[in-house]
Design brief:
The protein has 370 residues and is an alpha+beta fold. The protein has twelve helices and 17 strands. α2 packs antiparallel against α3 and α10 packs parallel to α11. It folds into three domains: 72 residues, 2-Layer Sandwich (Dna Ligase, domain 1); 127 residues, ATP-grasp fold, B domain (D-amino Acid Aminotransferase, Chain A, domain 1, 2-Layer Sandwich); 138 residues, Rossmann fold. Strands 7, 8, 9, 10, 11 and 12 form a six-stranded antiparallel sheet that branches. A five-stranded mixed sheet has the order 13-15-14-16-17, sandwiched between helices. A four-stranded antiparallel sheet has the order 1-6-2-3, with helices on one face.
Length: 370
Protein backbone atom coordinates (compact mmCIF):
# COMPACT_ATOMS: atom_id res chain seq x y z
CA UNK A 1 0.00 0.00 0.00
CA UNK A 2 1.44 3.32 -1.11
CA UNK A 3 0.57 6.56 0.66
CA UNK A 4 0.06 9.89 -1.02
CA UNK A 5 2.44 12.52 0.34
CA UNK A 6 -0.26 14.29 2.35
CA UNK A 7 -1.38 11.06 4.02
CA UNK A 8 2.20 10.08 4.84
CA UNK A 9 2.73 13.53 6.33
CA UNK A 10 -0.34 13.15 8.54
CA UNK A 11 1.17 10.01 9.97
CA UNK A 12 4.66 11.54 10.30
CA UNK A 13 3.20 14.53 12.15
CA UNK A 14 1.23 12.20 14.43
CA UNK A 15 4.53 10.54 15.40
CA UNK A 16 6.24 13.88 16.08
CA UNK A 17 8.08 14.66 12.83
CA UNK A 18 7.75 18.37 11.89
CA UNK A 19 5.95 19.07 8.58
CA UNK A 20 4.93 22.18 6.66
CA UNK A 21 1.44 23.65 6.89
CA UNK A 22 -0.55 22.32 3.97
CA UNK A 23 -3.99 21.57 2.53
CA UNK A 24 -5.25 19.11 -0.07
CA UNK A 25 -7.23 20.70 -2.90
CA UNK A 26 -9.35 19.24 -5.69
CA UNK A 27 -9.84 22.29 -7.91
CA UNK A 28 -7.97 25.44 -9.03
CA UNK A 29 -10.50 27.49 -7.06
CA UNK A 30 -9.58 25.71 -3.83
CA UNK A 31 -5.89 26.23 -4.60
CA UNK A 32 -6.49 29.95 -4.98
CA UNK A 33 -8.52 30.07 -1.77
CA UNK A 34 -5.88 28.37 0.37
CA UNK A 35 -3.06 30.36 -1.20
CA UNK A 36 -4.98 33.49 -0.23
CA UNK A 37 -5.47 32.24 3.34
CA UNK A 38 -1.77 31.46 3.74
CA UNK A 39 -0.76 35.02 2.77
CA UNK A 40 2.63 33.85 1.52
CA UNK A 41 4.22 32.17 -1.52
CA UNK A 42 3.14 28.54 -1.79
CA UNK A 43 4.38 25.25 -3.17
CA UNK A 44 1.82 23.42 -5.31
CA UNK A 45 2.54 19.70 -5.44
CA UNK A 46 0.87 17.05 -7.59
CA UNK A 47 -0.28 14.09 -5.52
CA UNK A 48 0.59 10.90 -7.40
CA UNK A 49 1.90 7.50 -6.35
CA UNK A 50 4.84 7.46 -8.76
CA UNK A 51 8.32 8.93 -8.35
CA UNK A 52 9.96 11.66 -10.40
CA UNK A 53 7.08 14.15 -10.23
CA UNK A 54 9.49 17.06 -9.61
CA UNK A 55 11.49 16.43 -12.76
CA UNK A 56 8.23 15.84 -14.65
CA UNK A 57 7.06 19.36 -13.71
CA UNK A 58 4.55 18.22 -11.11
CA UNK A 59 5.77 20.63 -8.41
CA UNK A 60 5.49 24.40 -8.93
CA UNK A 61 5.65 27.57 -6.84
CA UNK A 62 3.25 30.51 -6.79
CA UNK A 63 3.78 33.98 -5.35
CA UNK A 64 0.11 34.97 -5.17
CA UNK A 65 -3.40 33.45 -5.33
CA UNK A 66 -3.91 34.28 -9.00
CA UNK A 67 -0.70 32.51 -9.92
CA UNK A 68 -1.73 29.57 -7.74
CA UNK A 69 -4.97 29.31 -9.70
CA UNK A 70 -3.18 29.27 -13.06
CA UNK A 71 -0.57 26.74 -11.96
CA UNK A 72 -3.18 24.47 -10.35
CA UNK A 73 -5.25 24.56 -13.54
CA UNK A 74 -2.24 23.35 -15.52
CA UNK A 75 -1.29 20.67 -12.99
CA UNK A 76 -4.79 19.21 -12.91
CA UNK A 77 -4.41 18.55 -16.63
CA UNK A 78 -1.14 16.63 -16.21
CA UNK A 79 -0.45 12.94 -16.50
CA UNK A 80 2.72 11.86 -14.68
CA UNK A 81 4.09 8.48 -15.77
CA UNK A 82 0.60 7.32 -16.67
CA UNK A 83 -1.10 8.63 -13.52
CA UNK A 84 -3.56 11.51 -13.81
CA UNK A 85 -3.24 14.34 -11.29
CA UNK A 86 -6.53 14.48 -9.40
CA UNK A 87 -5.54 16.41 -6.29
CA UNK A 88 -2.82 18.77 -5.14
CA UNK A 89 -1.10 19.63 -1.88
CA UNK A 90 -0.76 23.35 -1.20
CA UNK A 91 1.96 24.23 1.32
CA UNK A 92 3.68 27.35 2.51
CA UNK A 93 6.87 27.78 0.52
CA UNK A 94 9.79 27.11 2.83
CA UNK A 95 12.90 29.27 2.94
CA UNK A 96 15.30 26.37 2.47
CA UNK A 97 18.88 26.67 3.66
CA UNK A 98 19.87 23.03 3.21
CA UNK A 99 18.39 19.76 1.89
CA UNK A 100 19.09 16.35 3.46
CA UNK A 101 18.11 12.85 2.35
CA UNK A 102 16.79 10.20 4.73
CA UNK A 103 15.26 6.80 3.92
CA UNK A 104 14.68 3.46 5.61
CA UNK A 105 14.10 0.22 3.73
CA UNK A 106 14.90 -3.48 3.88
CA UNK A 107 18.22 -4.75 2.52
CA UNK A 108 17.12 -8.19 1.38
CA UNK A 109 20.68 -9.43 0.96
CA UNK A 110 21.73 -8.36 4.46
CA UNK A 111 18.25 -9.32 5.79
CA UNK A 112 18.20 -6.17 7.90
CA UNK A 113 16.60 -2.74 7.88
CA UNK A 114 18.98 -0.13 6.47
CA UNK A 115 18.91 3.60 7.21
CA UNK A 116 20.31 5.57 4.26
CA UNK A 117 21.20 9.23 4.74
CA UNK A 118 23.05 11.94 2.86
CA UNK A 119 23.88 15.57 3.51
CA UNK A 120 22.70 16.22 -0.08
CA UNK A 121 18.98 15.67 -0.69
CA UNK A 122 16.46 16.67 -3.33
CA UNK A 123 15.52 15.58 -6.84
CA UNK A 124 19.02 14.51 -7.83
CA UNK A 125 19.51 11.90 -5.11
CA UNK A 126 19.27 9.02 -7.60
CA UNK A 127 21.98 10.58 -9.74
CA UNK A 128 24.09 11.12 -6.63
CA UNK A 129 23.75 7.43 -5.78
CA UNK A 130 25.19 6.57 -9.22
CA UNK A 131 27.96 9.17 -9.46
CA UNK A 132 29.00 9.65 -5.82
CA UNK A 133 27.78 6.65 -3.83
CA UNK A 134 30.29 7.45 -1.09
CA UNK A 135 28.07 10.42 -0.16
CA UNK A 136 25.33 8.01 0.95
CA UNK A 137 25.76 6.65 4.47
CA UNK A 138 24.21 3.27 5.29
CA UNK A 139 23.49 2.11 8.81
CA UNK A 140 22.20 -1.45 9.29
CA UNK A 141 19.87 -2.05 12.23
CA UNK A 142 20.04 -5.38 14.01
CA UNK A 143 16.40 -6.56 13.98
CA UNK A 144 16.96 -8.43 17.25
CA UNK A 145 18.08 -5.29 19.09
CA UNK A 146 16.43 -1.98 19.86
CA UNK A 147 17.46 0.98 17.69
CA UNK A 148 18.48 3.69 20.19
CA UNK A 149 18.42 7.51 19.94
CA UNK A 150 22.19 7.82 20.36
CA UNK A 151 22.65 5.62 17.26
CA UNK A 152 20.41 8.00 15.32
CA UNK A 153 22.57 10.95 16.42
CA UNK A 154 25.73 9.08 15.33
CA UNK A 155 24.23 8.71 11.87
CA UNK A 156 23.95 12.51 11.72
CA UNK A 157 27.56 12.99 12.74
CA UNK A 158 28.74 10.63 10.01
CA UNK A 159 27.14 12.78 7.30
CA UNK A 160 28.42 16.04 8.78
CA UNK A 161 25.38 17.35 10.66
CA UNK A 162 26.57 20.13 12.99
CA UNK A 163 26.25 20.04 16.76
CA UNK A 164 23.47 22.62 16.72
CA UNK A 165 21.24 20.26 14.68
CA UNK A 166 22.42 16.86 15.82
CA UNK A 167 19.73 16.45 18.47
CA UNK A 168 16.79 17.36 16.21
CA UNK A 169 18.22 15.36 13.30
CA UNK A 170 18.70 12.29 15.49
CA UNK A 171 15.18 12.65 16.83
CA UNK A 172 13.72 12.64 13.30
CA UNK A 173 15.77 9.59 12.27
CA UNK A 174 14.66 7.74 15.39
CA UNK A 175 11.00 8.67 14.88
CA UNK A 176 11.12 7.68 11.21
CA UNK A 177 12.51 4.28 12.19
CA UNK A 178 9.75 3.96 14.79
CA UNK A 179 7.17 4.56 12.02
CA UNK A 180 8.94 2.08 9.75
CA UNK A 181 8.81 -0.64 12.40
CA UNK A 182 5.43 0.14 13.92
CA UNK A 183 3.54 0.10 10.63
CA UNK A 184 5.31 -2.81 8.89
CA UNK A 185 6.68 -0.52 6.18
CA UNK A 186 9.08 -1.55 3.48
CA UNK A 187 10.06 2.04 2.77
CA UNK A 188 9.82 5.23 4.82
CA UNK A 189 11.53 8.24 3.30
CA UNK A 190 11.96 12.00 3.70
CA UNK A 191 13.46 13.67 0.66
CA UNK A 192 14.18 16.37 1.28
CA UNK A 193 14.42 16.99 4.99
CA UNK A 194 14.96 20.75 4.86
CA UNK A 195 16.67 23.19 7.17
CA UNK A 196 14.67 26.41 7.52
CA UNK A 197 14.61 29.29 9.98
CA UNK A 198 12.20 27.14 12.00
CA UNK A 199 14.57 24.16 12.11
CA UNK A 200 14.44 20.80 10.34
CA UNK A 201 11.16 20.01 8.56
CA UNK A 202 10.00 17.11 6.39
CA UNK A 203 9.30 18.82 3.07
CA UNK A 204 8.27 15.53 1.50
CA UNK A 205 7.16 12.14 2.80
CA UNK A 206 7.05 8.68 1.27
CA UNK A 207 5.60 5.63 2.95
CA UNK A 208 4.84 2.15 1.61
CA UNK A 209 3.38 -0.54 3.85
CA UNK A 210 3.04 -4.28 3.28
CA UNK A 211 -0.56 -5.07 2.28
CA UNK A 212 -0.43 -8.34 4.19
CA UNK A 213 0.02 -6.44 7.46
CA UNK A 214 -3.07 -4.23 7.09
CA UNK A 215 -5.16 -6.39 9.40
CA UNK A 216 -2.93 -5.03 12.17
CA UNK A 217 -3.34 -1.40 11.09
CA UNK A 218 -7.01 -0.43 10.93
CA UNK A 219 -5.97 3.14 11.70
CA UNK A 220 -4.01 3.30 8.43
CA UNK A 221 -6.91 1.93 6.44
CA UNK A 222 -9.20 4.57 7.93
CA UNK A 223 -6.62 7.31 7.48
CA UNK A 224 -6.46 6.97 3.71
CA UNK A 225 -9.78 5.24 3.03
CA UNK A 226 -7.81 2.38 1.53
CA UNK A 227 -9.55 0.07 -0.90
CA UNK A 228 -7.74 -3.13 -1.94
CA UNK A 229 -6.83 -3.14 -5.61
CA UNK A 230 -8.84 -5.50 -7.77
CA UNK A 231 -5.80 -6.19 -9.94
CA UNK A 232 -2.05 -6.37 -9.63
CA UNK A 233 -1.19 -3.67 -12.20
CA UNK A 234 2.34 -2.42 -12.84
CA UNK A 235 3.22 0.15 -15.51
CA UNK A 236 6.45 -0.47 -17.42
CA UNK A 237 8.44 1.24 -20.19
CA UNK A 238 7.50 -0.75 -23.31
CA UNK A 239 4.55 -0.72 -25.72
CA UNK A 240 3.02 -4.22 -25.33
CA UNK A 241 0.40 -4.48 -22.61
CA UNK A 242 0.69 -7.92 -20.99
CA UNK A 243 -2.42 -9.27 -19.25
CA UNK A 244 -2.69 -12.77 -17.76
CA UNK A 245 -4.62 -14.79 -15.22
CA UNK A 246 -2.10 -15.52 -12.48
CA UNK A 247 1.15 -13.81 -11.57
CA UNK A 248 3.30 -16.70 -12.79
CA UNK A 249 1.58 -16.90 -16.17
CA UNK A 250 1.71 -13.12 -16.61
CA UNK A 251 5.43 -13.03 -15.80
CA UNK A 252 6.03 -15.93 -18.19
CA UNK A 253 4.19 -14.02 -20.89
CA UNK A 254 6.46 -11.02 -20.26
CA UNK A 255 9.53 -13.24 -20.51
CA UNK A 256 8.38 -14.66 -23.85
CA UNK A 257 7.67 -11.14 -25.14
CA UNK A 258 11.23 -10.15 -24.19
CA UNK A 259 12.62 -13.35 -25.75
CA UNK A 260 11.12 -12.41 -29.12
CA UNK A 261 12.48 -8.86 -28.92
CA UNK A 262 9.51 -6.94 -27.53
CA UNK A 263 9.09 -4.72 -24.46
CA UNK A 264 6.19 -5.06 -22.02
CA UNK A 265 4.26 -1.89 -21.15
CA UNK A 266 2.27 -3.46 -18.32
CA UNK A 267 2.08 -6.35 -15.92
CA UNK A 268 -1.59 -6.96 -15.15
CA UNK A 269 -2.66 -10.07 -13.28
CA UNK A 270 -6.44 -10.50 -13.30
CA UNK A 271 -6.14 -13.41 -10.86
CA UNK A 272 -8.07 -16.66 -10.80
CA UNK A 273 -11.80 -16.90 -11.43
CA UNK A 274 -12.04 -13.58 -13.29
CA UNK A 275 -15.56 -12.76 -14.43
CA UNK A 276 -16.64 -11.16 -17.70
CA UNK A 277 -16.89 -7.84 -15.85
CA UNK A 278 -13.39 -8.26 -14.40
CA UNK A 279 -11.96 -8.87 -17.88
CA UNK A 280 -13.63 -5.68 -19.13
CA UNK A 281 -12.25 -3.60 -16.26
CA UNK A 282 -8.74 -4.98 -16.70
CA UNK A 283 -8.65 -4.43 -20.45
CA UNK A 284 -10.09 -0.95 -20.02
CA UNK A 285 -7.15 -0.03 -17.77
CA UNK A 286 -4.62 -1.27 -20.32
CA UNK A 287 -6.49 0.25 -23.28
CA UNK A 288 -6.24 3.68 -21.69
CA UNK A 289 -2.56 3.47 -20.77
CA UNK A 290 -1.14 5.65 -23.54
CA UNK A 291 2.17 3.80 -24.24
CA UNK A 292 0.30 0.56 -25.07
CA UNK A 293 0.20 -0.13 -28.82
CA UNK A 294 -0.49 -3.88 -28.66
CA UNK A 295 -2.25 -5.94 -25.98
CA UNK A 296 -1.13 -9.51 -25.32
CA UNK A 297 -3.91 -11.29 -23.41
CA UNK A 298 -2.55 -14.58 -22.09
CA UNK A 299 -5.28 -16.84 -20.64
CA UNK A 300 -4.86 -20.41 -19.43
CA UNK A 301 -8.33 -21.24 -18.16
CA UNK A 302 -8.60 -23.09 -14.88
CA UNK A 303 -10.99 -21.36 -12.52
CA UNK A 304 -11.11 -18.60 -15.12
CA UNK A 305 -13.48 -19.63 -17.94
CA UNK A 306 -12.47 -18.99 -21.52
CA UNK A 307 -16.04 -18.08 -22.56
CA UNK A 308 -16.21 -15.38 -19.87
CA UNK A 309 -12.90 -14.01 -21.12
CA UNK A 310 -14.16 -13.98 -24.71
CA UNK A 311 -17.34 -12.11 -23.77
CA UNK A 312 -15.33 -9.55 -21.81
CA UNK A 313 -13.01 -8.99 -24.78
CA UNK A 314 -15.91 -8.63 -27.21
CA UNK A 315 -17.77 -6.17 -24.97
CA UNK A 316 -14.78 -3.91 -24.32
CA UNK A 317 -13.79 -3.80 -28.00
CA UNK A 318 -17.34 -2.75 -28.88
CA UNK A 319 -17.43 0.13 -26.40
CA UNK A 320 -13.85 1.44 -26.29
CA UNK A 321 -12.92 4.40 -28.48
CA UNK A 322 -9.22 3.50 -28.32
CA UNK A 323 -8.52 0.29 -30.19
CA UNK A 324 -4.90 -0.88 -30.07
CA UNK A 325 -4.01 -4.18 -31.70
CA UNK A 326 -4.84 -7.22 -29.57
CA UNK A 327 -3.35 -10.71 -29.62
CA UNK A 328 -5.16 -13.35 -27.57
CA UNK A 329 -3.89 -16.71 -26.36
CA UNK A 330 -6.86 -18.59 -24.96
CA UNK A 331 -7.07 -22.19 -23.85
CA UNK A 332 -8.36 -24.23 -20.91
CA UNK A 333 -11.79 -24.39 -19.25
CA UNK A 334 -14.63 -23.85 -21.78
CA UNK A 335 -12.04 -23.08 -24.48
CA UNK A 336 -14.21 -24.30 -27.37
CA UNK A 337 -17.06 -22.00 -26.40
CA UNK A 338 -14.66 -19.08 -25.89
CA UNK A 339 -12.98 -19.68 -29.21
CA UNK A 340 -16.38 -19.96 -30.95
CA UNK A 341 -17.44 -16.58 -29.55
CA UNK A 342 -14.20 -14.98 -30.75
CA UNK A 343 -14.58 -16.57 -34.19
CA UNK A 344 -18.13 -15.20 -34.53
CA UNK A 345 -16.90 -11.73 -33.52
CA UNK A 346 -14.06 -11.92 -36.04
CA UNK A 347 -11.37 -11.66 -33.33
CA UNK A 348 -8.29 -13.84 -34.01
CA UNK A 349 -6.71 -15.94 -31.28
CA UNK A 350 -3.98 -18.51 -30.64
CA UNK A 351 -3.79 -21.54 -28.36
CA UNK A 352 0.02 -21.34 -28.16
CA UNK A 353 1.52 -18.73 -25.84
CA UNK A 354 4.72 -18.64 -27.91
CA UNK A 355 2.88 -18.01 -31.20
CA UNK A 356 0.71 -15.33 -29.62
CA UNK A 357 3.69 -13.55 -28.03
CA UNK A 358 5.64 -13.69 -31.28
CA UNK A 359 2.67 -12.19 -33.14
CA UNK A 360 2.35 -9.40 -30.54
CA UNK A 361 6.02 -8.49 -30.96
CA UNK A 362 5.69 -8.49 -34.76
CA UNK A 363 2.73 -6.11 -34.55
CA UNK A 364 4.60 -3.87 -32.12
CA UNK A 365 7.61 -3.63 -34.44
CA UNK A 366 5.46 -2.95 -37.50
CA UNK A 367 3.64 -0.12 -35.71
CA UNK A 368 6.94 1.42 -34.65
CA UNK A 369 8.28 1.27 -38.19
CA UNK A 370 5.20 2.90 -39.76
Amino acid sequence: MKFYEYDAKKLFAKEGIPILEGHVVYSPEQAMEFASDMRSPVAIKSQVLVGGRGKAGGIKFADNPGEAYSIASALFGMNIKGEAVKHLLIEKKANIKKEIFMAISIDRIAKKPVIITSSEGGMDIEELAKTNPEKLNKFYVNPLEEFLPYEAREIGRKIGIGNELISSFGSIVWKLFKIFSKYDAYIAEINPLVLTEDGLIAADAKLEVENDSLFRHEDLVQLIEFKPKEFAFVKLEGDIGVVGNGAGLTLTGMDVIKYYGGNPATFLDIGGGASENTIEKALNMVLHYAPVKVIFLNILGGITRADDVARGVIDILKTSERKPKMVIRITGTNEKEGQRLLDEAGIPYETSMEKAAQRAVELSKSLRNN
